């Protein structure tokens, strides 16, 4: 089975997928991302969560949006899953997604694989919205190209900033309030944070959708608006533009990249055998 690992700024997500490249995950887990963790510590946590399923792992695909973790992640994979196929998605790795931006190396690996997963699901232009430490709204063309996108402070980051910078405000639970007209300070903050985030995303999706259509020779608008991320369950229900919520979008993208990488490797091996 393929073990996919997505190391995000706040949480690390893991999932086991069948070797045939199809079907849902047979196992998944989440843990807190610790930027100072060593590869050995990471392996201890991952193997502990996998338990008996560790023996099922036949290949590993991973990425990290935390630069400080990348070196240790690479060490964990090569040392503790030695002998297995492994792929770390980072700048320079072929994903099959053309990056039509000023500096492709600046685009986070998570945004690239999310674009790939969304495009493979719908086969047409789409918008990818991810609610995490940051909120990203990215555009994917009708040809599967990453066109760029918008990055805003995430809902939790905004909530923390309010509590720190405003003396009269305190941390609140991120839930949908009874009404946009908060009747107390807590509900007023929840309305601004959660409903405000939904309105922000709807506005950005509309603008991004027009950009996608303007760059398409046939003027095609997005066929889907796909949402993901740890905070998506809080906000998605209040977004008028989101058409689909895919919790494991990044992990599915990792699976797709690994499948393409393995196909290229096998093809090269076949050509070498034919020449021998």
Automatic annotation (TrEMBL):
UniProt keyword annotations, A-Z: ATP-binding, Coenzyme A biosynthesis, Cytoplasm, Kinase, Nucleotide-binding, Potassium, Transferase
UniProt family annotation: Belongs to the type III pantothenate kinase family.
Cofactor, how bound (note): A monovalent cation. Ammonium or potassium.
Binding site for ATP: 6-13, 133
Subcellular compartments: Cytoplasm
GO BP, one annotated term: coenzyme A biosynthetic process
Gene Ontology CC, one term: cytoplasm
Protein name: Type III pantothenate kinase
ATP-binding recorded as keyword: yes
Cofactor requirement: NH4(+); K(+)
The keyword Heme belongs to this UniProt entry's keyword annotation: no
Quaternary state and interactors: Homodimer.
Enzyme class, UniProt record, top EC level: transferase
E.C. number: 2.7.1.33
Catalytic activity: (R)-pantothenate + ATP = (R)-4'-phosphopantothenate + ADP + H(+)
Active site: 110 (proton acceptor)
């Amino acid at each position: 089975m393929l073990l996919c690992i997505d190391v995000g700024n706040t949480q690390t997500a893991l999932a086991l997928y069948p070797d045939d490249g199809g079907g849902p995950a047979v196992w998944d887990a989440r843990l807190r991302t610790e930027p100072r963790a060593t590869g050995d510590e990471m392996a201890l946590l991952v193997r502990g969560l996998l338990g008996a399923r560790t023996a099922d792992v036949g290949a590993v695909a991973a990425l990290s949006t935390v630069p400080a973790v990348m070196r240790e992640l690479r060490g964990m994979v090569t040392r503790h899953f030695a002998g297995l196929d492994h792929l770390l998605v980072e700048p320079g790795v072929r994903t099959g997604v053309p990056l039509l931006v000023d500096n492709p190396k600046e685009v986070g690996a998570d945004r690239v694989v999310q674009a790939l997963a969304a495009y493979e699901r719908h086969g047409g232009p789409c918008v990818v919205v991810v609610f995490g430490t940051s909120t990203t709204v990215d555009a994917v063309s009708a040809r599967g190209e990453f066109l760029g996108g918008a990055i805003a402070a995430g809902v939790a980051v905004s909530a923390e900033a309010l509590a720190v910078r405003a003396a009269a405000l305190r941390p609140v639970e991120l839930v949908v309030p009874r009404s946009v007209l908060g009747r107390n300070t807590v509900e007023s903050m929840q309305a601004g944070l959660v409903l405000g985030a939904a309105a922000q995303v709807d506005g950005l999706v509309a603008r991004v959708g027009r950009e996608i259509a303007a760059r398409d020779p046939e003027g095609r608008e997005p066929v889907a608006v796909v949402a993901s991320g740890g905070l998506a369950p809080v906000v998605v229900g209040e977004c008028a533009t989101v058409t689909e919520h895919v919790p494991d979008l990044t992990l599915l993208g990792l699976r797709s990249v690994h499948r393409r990488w393995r196909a290229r490797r096998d093809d090269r091996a076949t050509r070498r055998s034919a020449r021998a």
